[in-house]
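Structure (tokenized):
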């Protein structure tokens, strides 16, 4: 997949274009991208996505912005997996926030990104003050020569699929509900780095993954599967949080203990999927108490995977 940042270079050729934040690339997003891919193939267009970094809500209200489901790298990997061939990552800043809807269409959608077809979600708004919507897009498309389609929301078990719903499920530890909304178990990617060796001293070596999610949408201890190793997926347990029983961390850390695994994997890039929540992160009065709890967590994870 070809990735451009900003609008200094035009798209290589005419595009079938989707626009959105796509946080988590959930089942609703995937329905939209499926429509994008099908139209691009039938009309000979380049399947393309315009997305924004940072998320607009992080720009307008950093302290109140919701937890991210996916960082940019994870989102780009999911786009590629959905057949997107070209992605434009636009920096969401004061200039873009102030851009009038008509100027956004003329300069970016029809101009830089050469849209021949545009697909958006049913709640898509754009332009300064969110002045633009589907009706404005359709009218502008007639003038600029691109067709516009709107994809309706997807529901699962009677619930509308949205990034907000997925965040709520993850925060509540409802991993199966989150997986149904996302279309897959929730995962976080990162590179294994050296840590303070506390877990090894406790008898449970961990892969320490310094994540880019400053405010992850979930925390606690989980049964997980880690992908990215040569011998395939490995099961384990993971703690995602600030380690209240040890030296408290300033930002969350993902620590993964792989079951029945003893190789050196420093530097490996892992994708850790959260299958089942075992418990909340908590403070223990001693390292001995923590050690006993970790042993119980491992047994709980083994039983979960067994059944």
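Design, position by position:
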């Amino acid at each position: 997949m070809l990735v451009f940042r900003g609008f200094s270079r035009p798209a290589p050729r005419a595009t079938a274009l989707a626009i959105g934040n796509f946080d988590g690339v959930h089942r609703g997003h995937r329905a939209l991208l499926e429509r994008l891919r099908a139209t691009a193939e039938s009309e000979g267009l380049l399947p393309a996505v315009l997305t924004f970094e940072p998320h607009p809500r992080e720009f307008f209200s950093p302290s109140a912005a919701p937890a991210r489901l996916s960082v940019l790298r994870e989102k780009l990997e999911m786009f590629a997996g959905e057949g997107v061939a070209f992605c434009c990552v636009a920096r969401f800043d004061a200039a873009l926030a102030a851009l009038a809807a008509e100027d956004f269409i003329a300069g970016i959608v029809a101009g830089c990104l050469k849209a021949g077809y545009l697909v958006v979600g049913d709640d898509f708004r754009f332009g300064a003050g969110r002045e633009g919507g589907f009706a404005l897009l359709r009218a502008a498309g007639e003038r600029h020569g691109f067709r516009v389609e709107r994809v309706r929301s997807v529901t699962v078990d009677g619930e509308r699929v949205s990034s907000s719903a997925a965040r709520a499920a993850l925060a509540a530890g409802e991993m199966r509900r989150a997986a149904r909304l996302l279309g897959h178990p929730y995962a976080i990617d990162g590179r294994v780095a050296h840590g303070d060796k506390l877990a090894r001293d406790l008898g449970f070596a961990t892969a320490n993954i310094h994540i880019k999610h400053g405010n992850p949408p979930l925390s606690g201890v989980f049964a997980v599967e880690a992908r990215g190793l040569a011998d395939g997926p490995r099961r384990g347990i993971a703690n995602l949080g600030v380690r209240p029983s040890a030296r408290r961390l300033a930002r969350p850390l993902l620590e993964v203990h792989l079951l029945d695994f003893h190789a050196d994997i420093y530097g490996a890039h892992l994708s850790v999927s959260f299958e089942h929540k075992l418990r909340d992160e908590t403070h223990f009065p001693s390292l001995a108490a923590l050690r006993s709890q970790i042993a119980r967590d491992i047994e709980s994870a083994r039983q979960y995977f067994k059944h």
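Reviewer-requested clarification: The mean pLDDT is 93. The longest helix spans residues 287-306.
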